[in-house]
Design goal:
InterPro entries: CCR4/nocturin_mRNA_transcr, Endo/exonu/phosph_ase_sf, Endo/exonuclease/phosphatase. By secondary structure, this protein is α+β, with helices and mostly antiparallel strands. The protein has one domain: 4-Layer Sandwich (Deoxyribonuclease I, Chain A). The protein has five helices and 13 strands. The strands form three sheets. Strands 5, 6, 7, 8, 9, 10 and 11 form a seven-stranded mixed β-sheet that branches. Strand 1, helix 1 and strand 2 form a beta-alpha-beta unit. Helix 1 packs across helix 2 and helix 3 packs parallel to helix 4. It is globular. The model has no long low-confidence stretch (mean pLDDT 96).
């Protein structure tokens, strides 16, 4: 699952975090994914989810200082299903100086990539999971971030099974999307290659209110390299009382290692 949970913004009333955090947790509990790549979570939001999701642990660092400051691109993983073999020595900043807190190009904010190597407990197979959140302003930054992520995946995962989740702030007809899906390694959009045709709407960013804020944009994705088979793919509309749990819809895929 890829899920932008929306940072705790007091101006979001009536959809501020305290009013929706239980619903965010329940969506994850209901679909029970092995991995959840989250975006925008602040440390107290992640701490809450960690407490609620008793079968999960998580990895990640704050983008502001490499510790607890700022938003995270955290990866939650179900310890019943997988175990962490290795995590990145440090968060990768999507910048010209990726090993330290920084931003580059025309980015408005620091942006990061988190990754871990996991082993499937039932089979012993291993898979790399990467999670990110691209800048919402910088067009150059989004393109350069795509190139940098491909470079990191080549260096870290090589030809081994790999999945990339995230809020990319780009549409499928954009240059960053084309870079990711035609580069080396080639990453496949799970939406496009799912054995069972996609289920749900074709947008992921909608605003909180059902039928009240959607501009029809699909900007959140799950990508997988050629070592991964995607059996199912969905965008989830788990709303209650006229509101979604977040201003983004979660993306869900069922995958297997070839």
């Amino acid at each position: 699952m890829s899920y932008n949970i929306r940072y705790d913004n007091p101006d979001d009333a009536p959809n501020h975090w305290d009013n929706r955090k239980g619903r965010v947790a329940n969506v994850i509990k209901f679909y029970d994914p092995a991995f959840v790549g989250t975006q925008e979570g602040l440390i107290h939001q992640l701490t809450y989810l960690d407490q609620e999701l008793s079968n999960y642990e998580w990895i990640g660092q704050g983008r502001k200082d490499g510790k607890h400051g700022g938003e995270f691109s955290a990866i939650f993983y179900d310890t019943r299903k997988v175990k962490l073999v290795k995590e990145s020595d440090s968060t990768v900043w999507l910048s010209e100086t990726p090993q330290k807190p920084s931003k580059s190009w025309d980015a408005a904010l620091p942006r990061i990539l988190t990754w871990g190597l996991f082993e499937v407990k039932s089979t012993g197979e291993q898979v790399y999971v990467f999670n990110t959140h691209f800048d919402h302003v910088g067009e150059v930054a989004r393109l350069e971030s795509s190139k940098l992520i491909l470079k990191v995946i080549r260096e870290v995962a090589g030809k081994k099974p790999a999945v990339l989740t995230g809020d990319f702030n780009v549409m499928p007809d954009s240059e960053p999307y084309a870079t990711l899906t035609s580069g080396t390694p080639e990453l496949n959009d799970a939406y496009e290659i799912s054995v069972l045709s996609h289920v749900g709407p074709s947008f992921t960013f909608e605003g909180f209110k059902v039928n009240g804020g959607s501009d029809g944009r699909r900007i959140d994705y799950i990508f997988a390299n050629n070592e991964i088979r995607v059996n199912k793919h969905a965008i989830l509309t788990s709303f209650q009382e006229g509101f979604y749990p977040s201003d983004h819809l979660p993306v869900y895929a069922e995958i297997e290692i070839k």
